[in-house]
């Protein structure tokens, strides 16, 4: 009897051991399957032939290269897809249109297009008709119907410059604006500046809006003309990426640093250095990195239907892309300029 009891006990132990071994084998197999799936997913991401193209009006412009291009390429690397920056090497709207047409013919997964000029509207709409998702960034394009637009609110930028300038000059005196006259985003900025001065600062007089022809030399020449015609000018606001450096150059050469207050847009190294040396008092800096990163991600989410809003978004006529994304701005003064300079030094 004792023998039978011992035998039953041994058999029970063996059975329990077998069950444990089977469970462990199952766990190992399950873990192995999960690892295989993970490896396969990683491999698919690395081998993806999916391509997203950024079509620019000038591929060599430092402002674009340091911000939206860099961010777009970093996004593509992080996502595991191909990215390309295409367009003319010099500012040329007609050549940008040609580049956009060529990109459309190659049928990429998505297109991010620099909204340089109303002339590109037809080509943007051609991408839409071809079924290629396209988003514009920077300047909006009248007449174009992209899936969405990413950029700064230029009217808001004008308001920010006006209030900053008013504070700098004690809310009284003569001021001028310099930028690329005729561009839609510049016009919106000029309007925001003008409206704010007229409504909030009655003792400030705007003597005029002057063009810099999109060059540092043009901005310096315009500044010299302003100082000659208006010897009591108290401040000058720049609205193009080249305006600030040109204004600063002319003010330094005239030995009027501190006497003429300067505000402007963008935060390239030359802008930051002028703030550091007290030539420019304040920068209104666009968050241009978001143009490239968000543009790529919006397109990717659309292509992969990552954020479904209905059972069938295409049938419902809706998309997960915001119609207009305002990325805002950053105010840079001598108090925080070192943080931006150090970012460039990385």
Question: What does it look like?
Answer:
There is one protein chain. 51% of the residues lie in helices and 18% in strands. With 346 residues, it is an alpha/beta fold. Strand 6, helix 6 and strand 7 (204-211) form a beta-alpha-beta unit. Helix 2 packs parallel to helix 10 (289-303), helix 5 crosses helix 6 (184-200) and helix 7 (216-229) packs across helix 8. Mean pLDDT is 88; it is low at 1-47.
Annotation keywords:
six-stranded mixed sheet, 12 strands, 51% helix, six-stranded parallel sheet
Based on CA inertia axes, which overall geometry fits? elongated
Number of strands: 12
Question: What structural category arises from helix and sheet content?
Answer: alpha/beta
- Give helix % range: 40-55%
Report the span from N to C terminus: 83 Å
Q: Strands of the biggest beta sheet: in what spatial order?
A: 2-1-3-4-5-11
Proportion in β-strands: 15-25%
Radius of gyration: 29 Å
Give the SSE order as H and E letters.
Answer: HEHEHEHEEHEHEHEHEHEHHEEH
Low-confidence stretches: 1-47
Mean pLDDT across every amino acid position = 88
Taking the sheet with the most strands, its summary is: 6 strands, parallel
By DSSP (H or I, 4+ residues per run), the number of helices equals 12
């Amino acid at each position: 009897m004792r023998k039978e009891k011992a035998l039953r006990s041994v058999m029970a132990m063996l059975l329990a051991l077998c069950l444990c071994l089977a469970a462990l084998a199952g766990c190992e197999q399950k873990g192995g399957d999960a690892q295989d799936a993970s490896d396969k997913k990683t491999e698919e991401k690395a081998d993806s032939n999916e391509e997203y193209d950024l079509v620019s009006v000038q591929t060599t412009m430092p402002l674009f290269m340091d911000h939206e291009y860099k961010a777009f390429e970093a996004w593509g690397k992080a996502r595991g897809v191909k990215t390309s920056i295409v367009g003319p090497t010099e500012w040329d709207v007609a050549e940008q249109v040609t580049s956009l047409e060529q990109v459309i013919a190659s049928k990429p997964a998505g297109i991010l297009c620099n909204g340089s000029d109303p002339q590109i509207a037809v080509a943007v709409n051609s991408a839409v008709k071809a079924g290629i998702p396209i988003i514009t960034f920077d300047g909006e394009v009248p007449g174009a119907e992209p899936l969405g637009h990413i950029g700064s609110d230029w009217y808001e930028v004008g308001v920010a410059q006006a209030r900053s300038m008013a504070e700098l000059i004690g809310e009284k005196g003569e001021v001028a604006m310099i930028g690329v006259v005729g561009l839609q985003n510049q016009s919106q900025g000029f309007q925001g500046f003008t409206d704010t001065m007229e409504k909030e600062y009655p003792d400030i007089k705007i003597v005029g809006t002057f063009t810099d022809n999109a060059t540092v030399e043009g901005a310096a020449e315009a500044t010299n003309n302003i100082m000659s015609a208006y010897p009591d000018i108290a401040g000058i606001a720049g609205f193009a990426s080249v305006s600030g450096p040109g204004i600063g150059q002319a003010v330094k050469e005239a030995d009027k640093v501190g006497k003429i207050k300067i505000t402007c847009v963008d935060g390239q190294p030359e802008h930051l250095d002028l703030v550091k040396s007290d030539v420019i008092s304040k920068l209104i800096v666009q968050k241009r990195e978001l143009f490239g990163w968000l543009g790529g991600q919006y397109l990717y989410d659309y292509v992969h239907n990552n954020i479904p809003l209905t059972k069938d978004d295409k049938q419902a006529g809706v998309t997960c892309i915001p119609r207009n994304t305002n990325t805002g701005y950053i105010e840079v003064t001598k108090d925080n300029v070192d943080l931006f300079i150090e970012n460039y030094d990385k």
